Amino acid sequence: MQKYHSTMSRRDFMKALGVSAAGISTATALAPAFSDLDEMVAKEGLYGKRPWWIKEREHLDTTTEIDWTEMKRYSENDTMRGTHAAEYRLSLFDQTEWDRRSALKKEEEKKWLLEEKPGYSLKDVAYSSNVGSNQSVSQSFLGAQKASTPEARGVAKWEGSPEEAASMLRTFLRSVGAMSVGIVELEEGKTKKLIYDFESGGKIRNVWEDTDTAIVRDLGGGNKEHVLPNKFKYAIEIINQESMNLFKVNPTLLMSQIRYGRNANTQAATMEFIRGLGYQAVGQFSINAIGIAPALATISGRGEMGRMNRLITPEHGPIVGAFTMLTNLPLAPDKPIDAGYMRFCKDCMKCAETCAEGAISFERDPYWETIGAWNNAGHRAWFEDSRKCAAYRALPSACTSGKCLAVCTFSKDHTAGIHTVVQATLSATPVFNGFFKEMDDIFYHEGLHNPEKFWDIELPTYAIDSTINGRDTHS
User: Which residue in 204, 328, 347, 390 has the fewest CB atoms around it within 10 Å?
Assistant: First the structure.
């Protein structure tokens, strides 16, 4: 695997950027020394090696402040994907305005199709309509349940330490497409609250019971209960990266989301793998089901929450998706991290600046008071106005679900040496946060790519760089 052997010291790096001697002294005092970029690799352990500047915090001590006494069990049905969506929309604009935006977008995109405008031409439409449809299985709460159990094989179920189980599970999940995997222990009065009450649509409810096996209970009239055994004490958080290339051609139709199809396969395979060990796992029966995945991912150290109210990962910035599974396989839980993202977001504002509808807050510090029922109370965050997000996306050539993510300062090739040094510096001190944001503006402007050049680049397999967090662990 390629190494980035740089002999540039941090002092020389700061001088090259034009930072004053006083600024260099501050950074040198606050940040650990390194002689080359290979020293960025730190912790030992399979799939546990992450750059030294990612600091591990104490159990449940996330950089997002949480008040577990105020945190309530939330219903996915209350989000903009649930049955209240129309109600939320009409609290911002009347139906006439929503219809106007819809008609305008349809009219403009039809015109651009005929004009073969880059990002909206026939080949672009065909691409966006099919690139995310590569799944061979449907999402399911219980899974196929076809894998041979240990009992069927005439052996006892797999036994090992929680640490061995977590390492084994990560090996399997990485083999079937996961970028990063975190584990959360579900605790009464705390993390268990992050499992949804009602799912989107309001007809399926997750209920906890003292039973051995997860089942689906049909209540009639389309109403169901997903029965979760109290023995299911572990949440598996799977991070699937999106394509940086696709997000960077926002707001055209080429900006397609491809993580969902891959996760359906990843989840289905993992449920069968765990069944084959003698345990059970349940998965998301639909998009964004079971629990508040960004919160669980933050608690399991996959990243930090940022100004967009989205997860920012060290490996791939915010251009990722978080997915949740629950299991009774005993697993060693992970701890939250501090990579400096929450602090950086206080100064950056880039995502807020790019949302012309004002869906993202310009407040410097996160806050406790939520904006609407689509937000869950009990944590301190930059709560988004999801109505305005939907309104911006309803306009032609404005945003294709994620322009804020695309322009984020951390939506970059993180294997590049200069970006690693920047991340290491900002993790140790916020002194240069404003400076780094200005440099991002200068070198990358708004951070988007010309869609006309999209068809001239050579994409990596599956349009994602799967080497980002790979290590020479077997060499």
Answer: 347
What confidence tens digit (pLDDT) does each residue in 54-92 have? Answer: 999 999 999 999 999 999 999 999 999 999 999 999 999
Closest CA to 363 of 352, 378, 373: 352
Q: Is 222 in contact with 201 (CB distance < 8 Å)?
A: no
Q: Could you please report the per-residue DSSP string of 136-182?
A: SS---SS----SPPHHHHTSPPP---HHHHHHHHHHHHHHTT-SEEE
How far apart are the C-alpha atoms of 105 and 436, rounded to whole Å? 36
* Tokens read off for 70: 């105020």
**Distance between CA 266 and CA 269 in Å, rounded?**
5
- Residue 453's identity, in one-letter code, is K
**CA torsion, ordered 439, 442, 444, 447, to nearest 10 deg:** 90
259, exposed or middle or buried, with CB in 10 Å at 0-12, 13-18, 19+? buried
Give every CB contact of residue 47 below 8 A, 6+ residues apart in sequence. 167, 170, 171, 174, 181, 473
Helix (H) or strand (E) holding 436: helix 433-444
- What pLDDT is stored for residue 430 in this prediction? 87
